[in-house]
Design goal:
The protein is of the alpha+beta class and 401 residues long. The chain has 12 helices and 5 strands. Strand 4 and strand 5 form a beta hairpin. The N terminus is likely disordered.
Length: 401
């Protein structure tokens, strides 16, 4: 086989690698901090404002005053994030007081834009209106070089700057909400995956328990039968030891399976099981996810058995998980009703979109099983087409079946 020309190989290699090579950039340029952005904005605005202002002032005897006012207006933008309204007042004053024609109105645009990106539309409109009103008063007071056309242009600049800031701010807020929702969904998927793994682990353990327990039981029975029929004391002693070892192995398997079931329930093995006493912490975590929650307690609280207390906590936990998953930031009300014979739980949200019962996956099935375990009931469904409600009743004297 003929060898390829080395020059052809070099050309191909260069064509393959050239598009992937890019000059290295410093970290402050790849992902600049807020302070770096502010400094760059101030430098850019200074290049646009100060030289033109000084050039115009050099034609008059107001060079010093015009230079100082233009520099002060530009430097004020360094604090536009921490003190946006103070900066707006400073740059408005410099726009009014500067004695020559100057593009210093750029500083006012930047200040209004910043307010729009960080505050509500109403606040931004009020700020733009105040600046426009200041220009109108200045016009009525006979300010030099500020005619009716200048006032219209001034108002238009204020409106455009404020509107652009509000638009960018709303887009950023929407992206933040989408990012938070994505993080919540990722955490929910992780929890579902962990639960599936735990359930599969318990299923495998139960199958192994059934097989091994059957065989060990046969070993124990046969060892006891052999010991009962053997005439030698040493044989009886050995068969008794085999039977004791078999019973210990059975007890260890029971304990291991119990720990696996506790782990599948979402709690570390041997950790205290939660109850309604930890409900405040659960509600705070849900509030941290953006859900507004009100807790109402009806009736006189009474001591609950550990099993009922745990099931009540899990039902509320699962219902709030479904609120975060399906209703987002909908306002939710959690009601604990201590009735004469049963504890009643009501978890209701005000979500805009009604959900089908199957939308919550296995959550509702698990809650129903917990309620049925004590002879109680659980109902779930839309609230007149607006929101969703889960209502459970757990008898106080219910014993797990």
């Amino acid at each position: 086989m003929a060898h390829q020309d080395a020059r052809d190989l070099g050309r191909r290699a260069s064509r393959g690698y050239a598009p992937r090579v890019s000059p290295a950039r410093p970290s402050w340029l790849r992902k600049p901090s807020a302070r770096t952005v502010d400094v760059l904005v101030v430098l850019l605005v200074a290049l646009l404002v100060v030289p033109v202002t000084v050039a115009e002032a050099s034609k008059t005897d107001e060079v010093l005053a015009a230079t100082l006012l233009s520099v002060a207006g530009v430097l004020a933008l360094l604090f536009r994030r921490s003190r946006p309204f103070v900066v707006l007042a400073v740059v408005t004053a410099t726009n009014v007081l500067i004695p020559v024609e100057s593009p210093i109105w750029i500083t006012m645009m930047v200040a209004l834009y910043t307010i729009g990106t960080r505050h509500s539309g109403e606040t931004t409109i009020a700020a733009a209106g105040a600046v426009t009103a200041t220009g109108f008063v200045y016009r009525l007071a006979g300010g030099p070089g500020f005619g009716a056309a200048d006032l219209v242009a001034f108002a238009l600049i204020c409106a455009v700057s404020a509107g652009l800031g509000v638009y960018v701010g709303s887009r950023r807020a929407r992206m933040d909400r989408l990012r938070e929702r994505a993080e919540l969904l990722d955490r929910e998927r992780e929890l579902l995956a962990q639960r599936a793994v735990a359930e599969e682990r318990v299923r495998i353990a139960q199958e192994l328990h059934g097989v091994v327990a059957h065989n060990v039981s046969l070993i124990v029975v046969q060892a006891q039968a052999l010991g009962a029929t053997a005439g030698d004391d040493r044989v009886r002693e050995a068969t008794d030891g085999i039977a004791d070892l078999g019973r210990e192995a059975m007890a260890e398997m029971h304990r291991t399976l119990k720990l696996l079931r506790a782990g599948a329930d979402g709690d570390p093995a041997l950790a205290p099981q939660p109850g309604l006493g930890e409900l405040d912490g659960l509600l705070e975590r849900a509030r941290g996810a953006g859900v507004g929650i009100d807790l109402t307690v009806e009736g006189e609280p009474r001591p609950l058995s550990q099993s009922v207390d745990l099931s009540a906590y899990r039902i509320v936990q699962e219902a709030l998980t479904n609120v975060v998953k399906h209703a987002g930031r909908a306002h939710t009300t959690v009601t604990l009703g201590y009735r004469p014979d049963a504890l009643e739980l009501t978890i209701a949200d005000t979500g805009d979109a009604p959900r089908r019962e199957g939308a919550a996956g296995h959550g509702l099935v698990g809650m129903r099983e917990r309620a049925a375990l004590f002879g109680g009931t659980l109902s779930a469904g839309p609230r007149d087409g607006h929101g969703f409600e889960v209502r459970a009743s757990l008898p106080y004297d219910g014993e797990p079946a």
